[in-house]
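Hey, does this match?
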Amino acid sequence: MLAAAAAALNLLADAVRRGGADQDDIVQAGVHGAFAGVFDAASERVMEAADNP
């Protein structure tokens, strides 16, 4: 599952670099919210591990 997610992100990065996705497309697709969710979940796991070594 993580490999598929990484592949999708790499495709998105390539589209942005090539001009196939502009800022409005990215915002409409909810990419910002998805990234925020990933980072939020990761930080929760780190904090839980720090609280419960």
